[in-house]
């Protein structure tokens, strides 16, 4: 978890110091434009949702957030809290494998994979939902 927070900080800080030209080299333009608009208009609540859901580009979001006026302490807090459920599930999978309770680990892993696949398949609806949030 500490590594995730440090990585988020580094990505945010680099974007903040090096600016948009740097971020455009790291994040493809389509992703940058889509999330840049969402984050600038809705800020921390949308960031939290992005971190909470598996299979969304969490790391790239830190770069994009660095281009906004979001304070670093707020990003770190939202990033840590939003990523915590996924981190806990992956830790439990690892603990299940380490204790040779592979059935438990497999069930958790499959549940996470199914959720990721559903989010991937429903990504267009999720994008429309986020666009509707922006319009409000």
Question: Your description of this structure?
Answer:
- By secondary structure, the chain is mainly alpha-helical.
- It has one domain.
- Helix content is 85%, strand content 0%.
- The chain has helices at 2-26, 29-42, 44-52, 58-65, 72-98, 102-121, 123-135.
- The protein starts with a helix and ends with a helix.
Distance between the termini: 34 Å
Number of E strands: 0
Our estimate of the beta-strand percent is under 5%
Query: How much is the average pLDDT?
Result: 79
Spatial extent as radius of gyration: 16 Å
Domain count: the total is 1
- DSSP summary: helix tally: 7
* Multimerization status: single chain
Low-confidence stretches: none
Element-level helix/strand string:
HHHHHHH
Which structural class should the secondary elements be placed in? mainly alpha
How much helicity do the residues have? over 70%
What best-fitting shape do the alpha-carbon axes yield? globular
The biggest sheet amounts to: none
Defining key terms:
136 residues, mainly alpha
Short description:
The protein has 136 residues and is mainly α. The chain has helices at 2-26, 29-42, 44-52, 58-65, 72-98, 102-121, 123-135.
Set down the secondary structure blueprint:
Blueprint: H1 2-26, H2 29-42, H3 44-52, H4 58-65, H5 72-98, H6 102-121, H7 123-135
Helix pairs in contact: 1-4, 1-5, 2-4, 2-7, 3-5, 5-6
